[in-house]
Amino acid sequence: xxxxxxxxxxxxxxxxxxxxxxxxxxxxxxxxxxxxxxxxxxxxxxxxxxxxxxxxxxxxxxxxxxxxxxxxxxxxxxxxxxxxxxxxxxxxxxxxxxxxxxxxxxxxxxx
DNA sequence: ATGCTGACTGGGG
DNA sequence: CCCCCAGCCAGCA
Length: 111
Fold this sequence. Notes:
Layout: H1 3-17, E1 24-25, H2 26-33, H3 39-48, E2 60-61, H4 78-85, E3 90-91, E4 94-95, H5 98-101, H6 105-108
Parallel strand pairs: 1-2
Antiparallel strand pairs: 3-4
Helix pairs in contact: 2-3
This protein binds a DNA duplex through residues 4, 25-27, 30-31, 35-47, 57, 60-64, 67-72.
């Protein structure tokens, strides 16, 4: 009965669709859901994603490829370790090869 | 209701 | 890519 939950579900669905070794931005997901102006809500939804499993929130970063949400994970560098473990190069909480690992739902999902 | 904060983004320089 | 400014939306004191 809450449209908000639908929004959450969408975010989770897309997040799960993110391939291994790839990342995307909050804005990309927000835009894909039709709420490009509410990119913050995506991050907010991701925050709640901790309540659910199988949500690779570590694969979601800001448009700069900066691990803005790393502070919300258990450890201090857990997010970076997870990404590096997938072959993503990170330096100073920033994805170096962002252009190479960036995953655009519009480009990959919507043909 | 008011003000602040936040896992954000786009545009201009 | 980085910095600054303004817009957006939801939650909280």
